[in-house]
Structures are given as C-alpha cells and as structure tokens.
Amino acid sequence: MKKIVVLILLQAIFCNLVYADCDWTAIKPMANGSYEYVPALHLCVGNLVVDNKILVAQLVELNAAIELKNLALNKADARTELWRKTSDSEQDRLSKIQDSQKTNDLLWFGLGILSTVAVGMMTARLIGRRSREREASTTSSR
Predict the structure, then answer these.
(1) What is the model's pLDDT at position 128?
(2) Distance between CA 94 and CA 91 in Å, rounded?
(3) What are the backbone angles phi and psi of residue 79, rounded to the nearest 5°?
(4) Does 110 fall in a domain?
(5) Closest C-alpha among 84, 24, 79 to residue 48
C-alpha cells in the first residue's frame, strides 16, 4: 500500500518536471475567468489536462482497490469469528453429548441390574408357588 502511494507521489512530482521546459509565465488571466496563453503552451496545457485525467482515474481505481481490500479483510475477520463461534458451540455440544452418554450408560447399567433382580425375584416366586402347589397336590391326593 505504501509503495503505491509513493509511486503516485513520484509520478506527480516527475510529471511536473517533464513540463518544466514550458514557460508558464506567459499565461495571462482574462476578465471572464478564463486564461490566455501562447500557442506554444497549448501542448503543455493539453498534456497536463490529460495527465490529470489519468491520475484522477488511477486514484479512483486505487481507492476502489483499497475499499475492496478492506472489505475482504472485514469479511475474513467475520468469517474467522463465525468459525470460532461455530467451533465453540460444537465443542460445547460434544461435551454435553458425552456427559449425557455417561449418564445414559449409568442409567442403562442400573436398569440392567434392576431387571436382573426383578427377574430373579419373579423366578423365586414362581418356583415357590410351584413348590407350594405340588405340596398341596401331594397332600390332597393322599
């Protein structure tokens, strides 16, 4: 960026040195606000006007390039911030999932133990009922 500004300033300085051979004192202001100058200065003035238009066009292009650069930097910063927020939220989500997975594992383990105990108790009751039914049938058949 600094190099571009230096180049523009150097061009502006050397542009004036190129036309230093013109006698600018021969230009006379007129009453209506315009200027009168000798025919030899027509070429010098025309070159200055053309160079000025070129410099203005270059300045407009450079300003547009600087705006685009700033916009690109802002977009890159916004993209980086969005990525950071997304990665943080995903990390939080993963840690919550891991915590809930641990809780679910403990709950399923407890449920497995409870179901095993319940099956054992039901089996014991069924065995006890069957044995009572057999005792009752053997005592009644006698």
Answers:
(1) 81
(2) 5
(3) -65, -40
(4) no
(5) 24
- For 64, phi then psi, to 5°, come to -65, -40
In a domain, 48, yes or no: yes
Q: Tell me how many helices (H) and strands (E) the chain has.
A: 2, 2
- Domain count across the chain: 1
How does pLDDT run across 24-46, given as a tens digit for each residue?
677 788 889 888 877 777 777 67
* 34 in any annotated domain: yes
Domain that holds residue 37: 2-101
Residue where the block lists tokens 């230096």: 6
List CB contacts of 135: < 8 A, sequence separation 6 or more. Answer: none
pLDDT tens-place string over residues 114-132: 999 999 999 988 888 777 7
Alpha carbon dihedral 36, 39, 43, 46, in 10-degree steps, equals 30
CA 103 to each of CA 2, 26, 48, 95, 98: distance values in angstroms, whole numbers, following the listed order: 60, 95, 81, 12, 9
In degrees and rounded to multiples of 5, residue 18 shows phi and psi of -65, -40
Residue 142 belongs to a domain: no
